[in-house]
Specification:
globular; OB fold (Dihydrolipoamide Acetyltransferase, E2P); 3 domains; alpha+beta; 6-stranded mixed beta sheet; binds zinc ion; 13 helices
Length: about 475
Amino acid sequence: MPRKTVPALVIALLGLALSLCLAEQRGNLRGYITAKPDERTLKIMADVIYLEPSTKFDIQDGPPGKRLASHNLAVGMLIEANGMWVGKHQLLAKKITCDWDQFDREISESAYLEQEPVQAAKILGGVPFNLKADGEMLIPDENTTPTWQQTTVQPTAGKLPAEAKLAGSRLRYRGVRRPDGSIVAREVEFGPPPPEEAFQNPGGLRVVRGKDPQTGIDILEFREKEEVVAKMKLFPVKEVQEYVGQLGAKLSPGAEAAPLLRSLEFRFYVIEDAEVNAAALPDGAILVNTGLLGALENEAQLAFVLSHEISHVTQAHYWRFVHETRPQRVGLLVADLAALAVAIATKRGYIFSLANFFVTIGLPAVVNGYGRRLESQADRLALQSLVDHGYDPRQASRLSAILIERYASRSMSVIWSSHPSNVIRGSFLTVQIERQYPQDDFSQKTVDTEAFRAMRQAMGPVKSM
Ligand SMILES: [Zn+2]
């Protein structure tokens, strides 16, 4: 046997063993279909799902007798595929499951109007209006008549008073998406703004910048009344804190925002913590870990992270999470809040993990996410914010792709570093950008800046986990 063939044979055998190993790996994948190249192939971002004649289709919560087939599956649907991995990004599907409610294509959502709609005065009386809200463009059809519930402004004889302000109001809408990405809203209802308490931290917790009395290092203090109950280490490089603060301020609600939002004090803090994570407290304190900053490639990605966290605040997600997700979670959260005081009383000294801290003090949603509906809303509004500020929104799905690769073999619970949640998010973002802005060309929009590169330079090497 010539000597050269030995390594070749070994490599071939190793390759065979590896492919056998992969072939036997069962797997499942949950996400939105981002492409359907042909009747037997689906894509969820980088992953390709192959359908076979034997693949079973299963509808959850569908009417009896309703069957699902591959021709029913379309881009934008949320599915779960179970089968075998036959390559790094290739899944041979044994079964595809999807929820029946996706076939009822009506969109129904509730969001707070962050700005005064430009055509507010025309919203009544059948006059066409375009209402930018919830990261969507809402268009009425000829029969849409807005309804009003406990609002401070009430129309008289079909007309809104000239001085009427709608910014801050709750908006509920129901409608169907058109090919141009806008939503024809058949029902539009205005309601009251969130109460002031929606922007207060539970337990009266306050977050303030401070200095450690012993070492003099910069810290973030969590105070209950005047007592410091916990501290986190702020990243000690001034340029990094300043840059994140300035970018955050640029993306926060401006002069045109609802009064309630204008009065909020958004503060941005870079925390020394290797975990890829960020969090927002109801009062506008936004925390970004060095681990997340270090994992980002450019300013557009950071703008997405900050805008997502800002949207949790402006949309009062913590308050909605507590008040709207009845009955399962309320009991749990009330119990959590009761435990808050006890947990805080036992937490003295430095907190080494943002995630552990928020879980311990009873605010797990701040780092684990508020559930798909509110997380999707924060993502939609963050995409809108990227577009409004001249960034390329495709960097949002690119960020998910980076995190999917990073956490491919690990399952973490926190929202920015969980593998399943990044597949769902990344595919949602890909689909949403296509749906929401089908005619837009983002190739000339901002991706990176000199300021971001200078900040990364000032940061030096950082650990991300
Ligand atoms: Zn979130």
